[in-house]
Amino acid sequence: MSQYTATAAPTGRVVADLRSDTVTQPCDAMRTAMANAEVGDDVYGDDPSVNRLEASLAERLGKEAGLFVPTGTQSNLLAMLAHCGRGEEVILGDSYHVIRFEAAGASVLGGIALHALIVADDGAVEPDDVTAAIKDDDSHHPISRLLSLENTSDGRAVPLARMNAAIDAGRAGGLNLHLDGARFFNAITALGCSETDLAGPFDTVSVCLSKGLGAPVGSVLLGSKDL
Ligand SMILES: Cc1ncc(COP(=O)(O)O)c(C=O)c1O
I want to staple 40 with a disulfide (CB 3.0 to 4.6 A). Which of 47, 159, 198, 222 is the partner? Predict the structure, then answer.
């Protein structure tokens, strides 16, 4: 049983289940849309619904391509595996989902090290910490390859200026950039910015369809076609 359980009102009915936005369920219109969706073999690129979803999200976020996968954990994992080889490392925040709740999948499956930085009260990592974490070219060290940020982070929309400061430090140190945007659309709504304002500086962005948006499963990884 989960650490969190839904509490019933005295009537015995659960009025609002606020354990997580992940407990949302598809409404009747979404169920109807799913039942009536055009389908095909996605391996052959024959599923028009998946193709449309990938293309429309890629266009909205200003990326070349999208890849639909079942979960956000898988999407983040694929990004790290695409960016990093064995013996390379991801620099990220110590409270971020990738390091706290993804079973060290990048290390288990990809031989990728995770270097955690303290996350500030606003959900950002400090640019100086990013710079200090980037390793010298030395055979004693893993090769610093990727900076992975998160927005929203633990319910906070991290201000763009704070994201960009860490991004600039990462780029200056030669890192690639990934955004765990599980709640990307909550972030841009709260920040009052466009999709491309937030997604623009990143090489890859993972967005979830199953959190807050009400879809039962699904995430999309956006980035370049080659990657
Ligand atoms: C910030 C963040 N990233 C990634 C995930 C992973 O998503 P999933 O549960 O679909 O694997 C979650 C899940 O809640 C999350 O909160």
Answer: 47
Sorted by where each starts, the structural domains of the chain and their CATH numbers stand as 22-223 (3.40.640.10)
**Structure tokens given for 67:** 């890849």
Please state the rounded mean pLDDT for residues 152-166: 98
Residue 74 CA, closest ligand 1 atom number: 11
- Pick from 24, 73, 185, 219 the residue to mutate for probing ligand 1's pocket: most ligand atoms within 8 Å of its CB: 73
Q: Which helix (H) or strand (E) holds 149?
A: strand 143-150
List C-alpha distances in Å: 40 to 26, 46, 94, 182.
22, 5, 41, 26
Q: What is the pLDDT of residues 91-115, one digit of tens each?
A: 999 999 999 999 999 999 999 999 9
Conformation bin of residue 212: beta by default, left when phi > 0, alpha when psi is -120 to 50? left
Q: Is the CB of 204 under 6 A from ligand 1?
A: no
153 CB under 6 A from ligand 1? no
Helix intervals (H) in 13-159: 28-36, 48-61, 72-83, 97-100, 105-110, 127-133
pTM of the predicted model as reported, rounded to 2 decimal places? 0.94
Tens-digit pLDDT profile for residues 43-66: 999 999 999 999 999 999 999 999
